[in-house]
Write a structure and sequence with these properties.
Layout lengths: L6 H9 L18 E10 L1 E8 L5 E10 L4 E15 L7 E18 L5 E8 L2 E7 L4 E14 L3 E13 L15
Antiparallel strand pairs: 1-2, 1-9, 2-3, 3-4, 4-5, 5-6, 5-7, 6-8, 7-8, 8-9
């Protein structure tokens, strides 16, 4: 069952016309490349990192953060795949890639039933979108992340965050007839 909060995103993604999508439908065009870092706010809150290599449609992100309500250290690393990139011809100064991915999550500082600290280990499946301005080496993102906690017990959790990153790498050339890298 799809949560009702995700339906508008899915409808908008399905309604994107081929003329509004980048050639190949999945690249990030002139997105900044290399290493990016910046704050993430939500659950968790902390410092996020992203590696956007040249070529392909994959990126890699990670965060060292704090789960404020649960008072735990949060560490995650995700492989992300760009599903589609929306470009509005009326506002060509930015693009909006939609992504999903998978990766591990570790949370430490949780008290188990014996009162001792225990680590929570799980698998994240992020769904999100990035706002990529064409003129500056930054991006902003929002994501919702179902998390299947596997250890010490199985449960379903959710993370949700928004954030921004500044990139220390170079910008790619504008999109060509082939799909560009994320």
């Amino acid at each position: 069952m799809i949560p009702s909060c995700c339906l508008p995103l899915l409808v908008h993604l399905a309604a994107a016309t081929p003329s509004a999508a980048e050639p190949g439908g999945i690249g990030l065009g002139s997105a900044p490349r290399g290493f990016g870092l910046g704050p993430i706010l939500g659950e968790p809150t902390g410092l996020g990192f992203l590696w956007r290599p040249s070529g392909g449609t994959s990126t890699f992100d990670a965060a060292v953060a704090w789960s404020v309500p649960d008072d735990r250290l949060h560490i995650h690393a995700d492989w992300l795949l760009t599903l589609a990139t929306y470009r509005d011809p009326a506002t060509p100064s930015f693009s909006i890639p939609f992504y999903t991915g998978v990766g591990p999550r570790l949370r430490m500082g949780w008290k188990n039933e014996r009162g001792s600290d225990a680590a929570l280990l799980g698998v994240r499946i992020p769904f999100g979108m990035v706002i990529l301005p064409n003129s500056v080496p930054v991006d902003g993102f929002v994501e919702i992340v179902p998390v299947l906690t596997l250890y010490p017990e199985t449960s379903l959790d959710f993370d949700a965050a928004l954030g921004a990153r500044i990139f220390l790498g170079r910008r790619s050339s504008p999109p060509t007839a082939t799909a560009a890298a994320p």
